[in-house]
Amino acid sequence: MFSHLDRSKISLILLFSLWLSCNVFFICWDYITSPLNKSGVIFIQPGWSFKKTVAELQHHGLIKFPHIFLVWGVIKGATSKIKPGEYVISPELSPNALLQHLCTGQGVIHYKLTIPEGATIKEIAKILAKRQLIPRDEFIKWAFNPDFAHYLGINAPSVEGYLFPTTYFLQKGLRARDIIRIMVNEFNQVYKKYANKTTLSRHQVVTLASIVERETAVKEEKPLIASVFLNRLKLDMRLQADPTVIYALPVFDGNLTKEDLNFPSPYNTYIVKGLPPTPICSPGEESIRAVVEAPQTPFLYFVSMGNGRHYFSTNLKEHRRAIRKYQRHKTRSKISN
Q1: Where are the domains of the chain?
Q2: What is the pLDDT of residues 218-228, one digit of tens each?
Q3: CA separation (Å) from 267 to 155, 261, 263?
Q4: Distance between CA atoms of 78 and 98, rounded to whole angstroms?
Q5: Is 178 exposed, middle or buried (0-12, 13-18, 19+ CB in 10 A)?
Q6: Which residues pair with 167 in a beta bridge?
Q7: Which of 7, 11, 71, 256 has the maximal Cβ count within 10 Å?
């Protein structure tokens, strides 16, 4: 049995402990809910532990009491919810609000990135690397991974042609396969509008659209050029499309030579009949629509008129006449034989 004195001491100890606990709680609560009064930018990398994230916040002077922040993260169940990315930290944020931002991705910097129509995988990789979003080689490795392409529903050795050209807002910390998935998903959203408008397979449409994309930038001409290639396919004629030859060349200086036209490749449509095995670039929606909604025409040839537009012919005699007229100072023309 405790004496009266012992009970008094215990009561005092309990009261002191309660007082101390309350003070500690209020001090911690005040810290957790008060503004940081410190701004900055911090990059949380994929795979970081919560402890590593807290250490990085402390390193940048964004949190004063890392142990309190750690404990608060455990209490809030946030230790496995931190989203990677580059964050802008406002001085008005409290540690509690900062934790919420890290768990929801709010405040992550998004970089505006425009992929032009007609860009190839390698060109897209260069754009991403220039913006320091992903290393060029890593993006190329995943984009040309046939297993990953199949996983995304693309029955081809790469995702060439399926990285839709548009403007994206991407954050740092995304993996190459994340970016590829975003671009392929965008393609799928666009393509589903045309999926039931043609008897061609999706891969055939995208492949032909990629050639149309590379042949002309003139919107009104795209359906006519698509009709030329479709007519040649029906007649079992070679497509003789310069862009397909160029796609496979190890080096191209801008001048397509007769030697280049004999370069052995499954993409050389001067040698091989039919479509190339894969698209040669990422076609825009207008080129996809041009293939799917190509008009019925008698055209089998076209030649550049030197002003960005083309002259279309129905027979070889007319085509050669157009070559003499528009290509006097050129060594060759589009679909010249």
Answers
A1: 39-44+85-108, 111-191, 202-326
A2: 999 999 999 99
A3: 17, 11, 9
A4: 11
A5: middle
A6: 114
A7: 256
